[in-house]
């Protein structure tokens, strides 16, 4: 039996509705009803009000200067990791905001694929809370409004909302794979950081695992909606998004997301995910 792969054929379209129904069942189990009551309860209990307080002191003014434009050299790897969290959050929030408006009419349609997409868009909103919520571990750090979307991000989101419908899911699939690759790498990098604040590190790792578990399901959803040509397009998009991190995610670069790491997105696949993610994520 072949190992699961992001780029392997997904269930044929004549079986797509059954796959979407199975995914909706998993989503209800994970998120709860239409109010996302289970997800909200988990957020409140585990993530929204973290009890661990970091020993590491971060200058709030410097943090927000770098939030606007990462340019200073006297920033620790730990602070850089926190900046990566809030910058990724800002990018996610921007993408969700623009895409939600563009796709709003489709989310009111009854077809299973659109009902799934509506839930997934709501999950993305929780991701922004998970990422930016990491600053609550650090006294005196508040996220300001200095961030502006970089041009590669504007191009990517602009392409998503403007491409012909036949290309929407291939482009989104490639972007999701590249995003999962970056999240997975950041998760591994966190394991070497915060030596004096292990509970803070564990909280940040848990936030990434929660996001990765969702995002693997998002990849599965988009795979169902693309064919062989779409998977080839997705592979090209994943490479392009990986390359864009040199401009879009300077904090990741500072953490060690170098040229060899960026190139690694081409060989990245399901098998490289953490076991906890593979155990809990929906994937077909």
- Taking all residues together, what is the mean pLDDT? 92
Count of individual helical segments: 12
Straight-line distance between termini: 14 Å
Low-confidence stretches: none
Level of helix content? 55-70%
Largest sheet: none
* Class per helix and strand makeup: mainly alpha
Keywords:
single chain, 284 residues, mainly alpha, 0% strand, globular
3D structure, described in words:
With 284 residues, the chain is an all-alpha fold. The chain has twelve helices and no strands. The radius of gyration is 18 Å and the shape is globular.
Write the layout of secondary structure elements.
Layout: H1 16-31, H2 37-47, H3 60-68, H4 77-103, H5 112-132, H6 151-162, H7 165-190, H8 198-224, H9 228-248, H10 250-255, H11 259-263, H12 275-280
Helix pairs in contact: 1-5, 4-5, 4-6, 5-8, 6-7, 6-9, 7-8, 7-9
